[in-house]
């Protein structure tokens, strides 16, 4: 894709945490980007997330299915314009199941129905601190899809924000799945590398889409 001598390979980063490089081809990346642009528009569009301590997250976010805010889910954009969250499309839910099958080599059980998407947009110096995705009640794997600029994705352990962790470069089209023993591992994005996305995609910055199963009824 970027002219490497050897293709990047599927890598198990930790038990249940799998990186699948170049999982989305150019056409699917373009389609997903076009959809993200639509979802980012109001109502319940892209917003700046404020943390309880008075800070703001540098990545801006839009949600589908259920609206995440620090640190719970709601049916409306409670920390945005207050309107109902956009629905989770069936095709995106299906893509989540397909992603798990690609990462683990077997499809998830029928109970795994992806009903939430968080879409984060990183521009300029956006980053994301080490955190766990812990507001879901289901133990189903989190599916992460990346578009645009490459980032350094830090994947840690379940005990603390610190070491041991591994830094993985996520590029446009890459899939990362974390479930099983790694479902509640700390992870974050210390750095985005500007100008590294595929030119033909036409995105300045980086988008990450995580698909989750809420188990929230
Ligand atoms: O941008 C990423 O790769 C990670 C996003 C993330 O951890 C999240 O949305 O909870
Ligand atoms: Fe996360």
Automatic annotation (TrEMBL):
Species assigned in the record: Streptomyces subrutilus
Cofactor notes: Binds 1 Fe(2+) ion per subunit.
* Organism superkingdom: Bacteria
Please give the name of this protein: DNA repair protein
InterPro entries in UniProt: Alkb (IPR004574), AlkB-like (IPR027450), AlkB-like_sf (IPR037151), Oxoglu/Fe-dep_dioxygenase_dom (IPR005123)
Q: Which GO terms describe its biological process?
A: oxidative RNA demethylation
Which residue numbers delimit the Fe2OG dioxygenase domain?
A: 113-215
This protein's record includes keyword RNA-binding = no
Q: Does the keyword Mitochondrion apply?
A: no
Q: Which cofactor does it need?
A: Fe(2+)
Record keywords: Dioxygenase, Iron, Metal-binding, Oxidoreductase
């Amino acid at each position: 894709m970027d002219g490497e001598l050897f293709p990047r390979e599927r890598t198990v980063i930790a038990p249940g945490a799998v990186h699948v490089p170049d999982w989305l081809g150019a056409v699917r990346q373009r389609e997903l980007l076009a959809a993200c642009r639509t979802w980012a528009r109001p109502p319940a569009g892209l917003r700046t997330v404020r943390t309880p301590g008075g800070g703001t997250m540098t990545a801006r976010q839009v949600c589908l299915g259920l609206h995440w805010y620090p640190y719970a889910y709601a049916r409306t954009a409670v920390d945005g314009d207050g309107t109902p969250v956009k629905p989770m499309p069936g095709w995106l839910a299906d893509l989540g199941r397909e992603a798990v099958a690609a990462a683990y080599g077997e499809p998830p059980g029928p109970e795994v129905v992806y009903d939430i998407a968080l879409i984060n947009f990183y521009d300029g110096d956006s980053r994301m601190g080490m955190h766990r995705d812990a507001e879901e009640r289901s133990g189903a794997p989190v599916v992460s899809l990346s578009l645009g600029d490459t980032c350094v994705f830090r994947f840690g352990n379940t005990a603390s924000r610190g070491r041991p962790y591994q830094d993985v470069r996520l590029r446009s089209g890459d899939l990362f799945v974390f479930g099983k023993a790694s479902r509640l591992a700390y992870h974050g994005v210390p750095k985005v590398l500007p100008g590294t996305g595929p030119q033909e995609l036409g995105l300045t910055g980086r988008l990450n889409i995580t698909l989750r199963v809420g188990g929230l009824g």
